[in-house]
Amino acid sequence: MTGACSFSPSFKFLKTNVSVKRCRILAEDPVAWVPLRYPVSAITPGASGDGIRRTKGGRRPGCHRSFDSFPPPKMLLVQYFMGAFVAALLGFALLPGLRGRKKKKWGGGEGNSAGTRNGGGGGGTEVIVVGAGVAGSALAYTLGKDGRNVLVIERDLSEPDRIVGELLQPGGYLKLIELGLEDCVRDIDAQRVLGYALFKDGRDTKVSYPLEKFDDDVSGRSFHNGRFVQRMREKAASLPNVKLEQGTVTSLIEENGMVKGVNYKTKNGEELKAHAPLTVVCDGCFSNLRRSLCTPKMEVPSHFVGLVLENCELPYPNHGHVILADPSPILFYPISSTEVRCLVDVPGQKLPSVANGEMANYLKTIVAPQLPAQLHDAFISAIDRGTVRTMPNKSMPASPYPTPGALLMGDAFNMRHPLTGGGMTVALADIAVLHNLLTPLRDLSDSSALCRYLESFYTLRKPTASTINTLAGALYKVFCASPDEAMKEMRQACFDYLSLGGVFSCGPVALLSGLNPRPLSLVCHFFAVAIYGVGRLLLPFPSPKRLWVGARLLSGASNIILPIIKAEGVRQMFFPASVPAYYRAPPESHR
């Protein structure tokens, strides 16, 4: 199917203020001068396996010098001895200071200076991050890597145990690489995800991610959310200028309409204040600070019922599985080498009771008969073990009101139905945008400049975030069963359209995976599915009834996607260049 795909990924990230060393390449190389070190956003996908662009012969660019340019051996010896002498002097000078330093403790609240802990920013805190989940930990590491002093306040630093946030799309993995966090999916028994398998009415089809132009390592990843989050916390805490502290933020500190920091309680119940020029709220889908920074318009269209299937082989290894069941989809994907996560979508606000056995009965009598035979027994065993968990599926468009000194991120800021597994990809993409914006702004205490940069963030994130959000909402509505004949045709048309392969599956999956987050491409494919459905209805012979169903199909498709686009913002989504933004790239003086 991939041979017919014309998809070409595009990396059009903001230019970063990264100094680039250059060196001469040997005469046979096709380029005379090339960067020795690339920003990850400029990486050209290759087949070398390390994400680095290579020249002819498989060499990394900038790695060769002519032997004539090396100094003579005697000069090298002099340089070595001089270097050793200077290093020894520095070692004796710094050794007493190094011995006197206390070892930094992660999460113990005893790390950096007491001034930061007791408030006022006496330790030079530049950024306060509320929450140390995926978004908070990644942001803390990214800003800390730039040399900024970051304080992270997390309610519970023990390993999370969640049933969502377990599947990272390839686009999200590329963002991990860009942020320098790709090693966080190693050594946690994470599983590669190469695409999806769809099942409907006894038929199935497989659609693969369009990864041909990327390194072999690039794919989706699925894992235990808690293991992934702990690795990211450890990575952030490994930086000497990043401090993780366990505590509960109770409110933001506001002065003259500006956020100056937070009030919080430590794990011992002590009430403290912390001040910083920038506070980023990443406290998740149950955020208690969200209303201070935005006007949330939240919907809960359904709930996920989660189970773990043990020692179960999926029909298509290394693929997510989507069962187009009645009344709504069922998901399966691996989270370790021996475990498969199952998420059963239950529409509506009310769930069958787990305590009195209604949920077990619902799963066994309504859900189990619709599963592939290969998964049936493992599914029943998981129910009998009694480890059923539930989670509300929330949807909330990003509708912030820019507040000087503060920013929302992650699920506290923007949510979409988790059917497509796009939440972490959006969060990591947002962090990359913010990082590129703040890189040239060394002094965050310049409140007027900081405010202008933060306003630009809301514009620059829109195309990627709105594409993933819109696709998630539209796909969920299409994949749910409906008594309406037009919507039944739309659901069948979507399954058959993806089954065609080539560009018909490659394009939508590129959108789903975050590899091609373009709003116009999304709209084109969505209405192509609707038109394909109408064509199926009218062939071989149209009739008045079929014409009427086809008209309602087009109307239904419009009623699905247009309200979602309106909520995301038509202008911001399709014409972001027309939206005022102070900085679309670092100013020339900082490049």
In short:
With 591 residues, this protein is an alpha/beta fold.
Folded structure, characterized:
This protein is α/β, with parallel strands linked by helices and 591 residues long. It has helices spanning 73-100, 114-117, 134-145, 170-179, 225-237, 358-367, 373-384, 423-438, 447-460, 462-479, 485-499, 503-512, 519-538, 544-568, 570-574, and strands spanning 22-24, 33-35, 127-130, 150-154, 167-168, 191-193, 195-200, 203-208, 220-222, 242-255, 258-266, 271-275, 278-281, 299-310, 320-323, 330-334, 339-347, 389-395, 406-408. The strands form 4 sheets. Strands 12-11-10-4-3-13-19 form a 7-stranded mixed β-sheet. Strand 1 (22-24) and strand 2 (33-35) form a beta hairpin. The longest helix has 28 residues, at 73-100. It starts with 21 loop residues before the first strand and ends in a 17-residue tail after the last helix.
Low-confidence stretches: 1-122, 586-591
Seen as an oligomer or otherwise, the chain set is: single chain
Cα separation of the termini: 43 Å
The main sheet comes to: 7 strands, mixed
- The assigned structural class equals alpha/beta
Residues in helix, %: 25-40%
- Overall number of strands: 19
The amount of beta strand, in percent, is 15-25%
Number of helices: 15
Overall average residue pLDDT: 83
User: What is Rg?
Assistant: 26 Å
Can you tell me the overall shape? globular
Can you list the strand order of the major beta sheet?
12-11-10-4-3-13-19
Protein name: Squalene monooxygenase
EC number: 1.14.14.17
Keywords: FAD, Flavoprotein, Membrane, Oxidoreductase, Transmembrane, Transmembrane helix
Family: Belongs to the squalene monooxygenase family.
